[in-house]
UniProtKB/TrEMBL annotation:
<feature type="active site">
    <location>
        <position position="111"/>
    </location>
</feature>
<comment type="similarity">
    <text>Belongs to the DNA polymerase type-Y family.</text>
</comment>
<comment type="subunit">
    <text>Monomer.</text>
</comment>
<dbReference type="InterPro" id="IPR022880">
    <property type="entry name" value="DNApol_IV"/>
</dbReference>
<dbReference type="InterPro" id="IPR050116">
    <property type="entry name" value="DNA_polymerase-Y"/>
</dbReference>
<keyword id="KW-0479">Metal-binding</keyword>
<dbReference type="InterPro" id="IPR001126">
    <property type="entry name" value="UmuC"/>
</dbReference>
<dbReference type="InterPro" id="IPR024728">
    <property type="entry name" value="PolY_HhH_motif"/>
</dbReference>
<dbReference type="Pfam" id="PF00817">
    <property type="entry name" value="IMS"/>
</dbReference>
<feature type="site" description="Substrate discrimination">
    <location>
        <position position="21"/>
    </location>
</feature>
<keyword id="KW-0235">DNA replication</keyword>
<keyword id="KW-0808">Transferase</keyword>
<keyword id="KW-0460">Magnesium</keyword>
<keyword id="KW-0515">Mutator protein</keyword>
<dbReference type="Pfam" id="PF11798">
    <property type="entry name" value="IMS_HHH"/>
</dbReference>
<keyword id="KW-0963">Cytoplasm</keyword>
<protein>
    <recommendedName>
        <fullName>DNA polymerase IV</fullName>
        <ecNumber>2.7.7.7</ecNumber>
    </recommendedName>
</protein>
Length: 365
């Protein structure tokens, strides 16, 4: 990896909608505006899918158990998710992106990378382009977005968080490496909570700490990820914005209201998830050869069972049969099961076209 030459510096945006699901709900229901809102289920088994900024001030965030969220914020208002609405709004947003550049890499329903080195509106700067995109999103959807602007994807993503909500921040080639040194490594893409704790135990808490470590030291402790950590500590990321990312899998999972032990009940849950996956595969005409069933037990132990066929699975019945065979391999269960999931992967190359990630089937909890 190298620093880009000044003559060919890319102009990369990372656009991220502000509290997307919750903001859509507040937009559509004025009674929710200004209140702490969580999208999800308030049941004992529920999980927060998204939280408004009012809720976040109480420490409510996505993936938090609903009972914990309510303890932190007794006035929290739960709203059931409307994924069809979120997907519709996402399509509006991505259509706006396309007004400015064809080089778009969706990451999810509410965020994407854009390469605006040569933008379609002939705007003079990436800053002006980001500002115009955010204004169009607000005009079209009534929602706010934040933007990170930089010469590479790593820095653009970091920058989009810097002025949230409803703001934008630019990291120029002259400031990139020095800016990275000031940040905690826990904010870096590719450094999850487990890795951040390991880094802290090695005395690596900031970008400056990471940069001080040799490539050999990083390879010893982090293996194949060493080159990535070495590069980002210096603000280097040569990855292009890739508008043709291939969808590698389609999956759905559900958390049961109570732990299940009866085989018939568990099999019914697996079939429901298989049906969700089949609807996506059939609609997208993308068929995979590998089926995986995921099981999470009441003590949070997690296992998976997979089966690969010689040809893509092209019928609902075949997917149901494979899913049932896999779950039956762990039945009867010695302990309660709280979650099951089904995933189809290993798509046939003739069918797995460049499927937009924002059309992905969303797992429901």
């Amino acid at each position: 990896m190298r620093y880009p030459a000044r003559m060919d510096v890319r102009k990369i945006l990372h656009i991220d909608m502000d509290a997307f699901y919750a903001s859509v709900e507040q937009r559509d229901d004025p009674a929710l505006r200004g209140k702490p809102v969580a999208v999800g289920s308030a049941s004992a088994r529920g999980v927060v899918a998204a939280a408004s900024y009012e809720a976040r001030t109480f420490g409510v965030k996505s993936a938090l158990p609903s009972v914990t969220a309510l303890r932190r914020c007794p006035d929290l208002v739960f709203v059931r998710p409307r994924f069809d609405v979120y997907k519709s709004v996402s399509r509006q947003i991505h259509a706006i992106f396309a007004e400015f550049t064809p080089v778009i890499q969706p990451l999810s329903l509410d965020e994407a990378y854009l390469d605006v080195t040569a933008n379609l509106r002939n705007l003079p700067t990436a800053w002006a382009t980001a500002k115009a995109i955010r204004a169009r999103i607000l005009e079209e959807t009534g929602l706010t977005a934040s933007a990170g602007i930089s010469y590479n994807k790593f820095l653009a993503k970091l920058a989009s968080d810097h002025r949230k909500p409803n703001g934008q921040f630019a990291v120029t080639p002259d400031m990139g490496a020095a800016w990275v040194e000031t940040l905690p490594v826990s904010r870096f893409h590719g450094v999850g909570p487990v890795t951040a704790r390991k880094m802290a135990s090695l005395g690596i808490k900031t970008g400056a700490d990471l940069r001080a470590k040799s490539r050999a030291f990083l390879a010893e402790h982090f293996g194949s990820a060493a080159d990535w950590y070495y590069a980002i500590a210096r603000g280097i990321d040569d990855r292009p914005v890739n508008p043709d990312r291939i969808r590698k899998s389609s999956g759905s999972e559900t958390t049961f209201r109570s732990d299940l032990t009866e085989p018939a009940d568990i099999e019914a849950g697996v079939l429901e998830m298989a049906e969700d996956v089949w609807r996506w595969c059939d609609g997208a005409q993308a068929f995979g050869r590998t089926v995986t069933v995921k099981v999470k037990y009441q003590d949070f132990q997690q296992i998976t069972r997979s089966r690969s066929a010689t040809r893509p699975i092209r019928t609902r019945a075949d997917l149901h049969e494979a899913s049932l065979a896999l779950i039956r391999s762990v039945l009867p269960t010695p302990k309660g099961i709280r979650l099951v999931g089904v995933t189809v992967s290993n798509f046939d190359g003739t069918d797995a076209e460049a499927l937009p990630l924002f059309d992905a089937l969303l797992s429901q909890t």
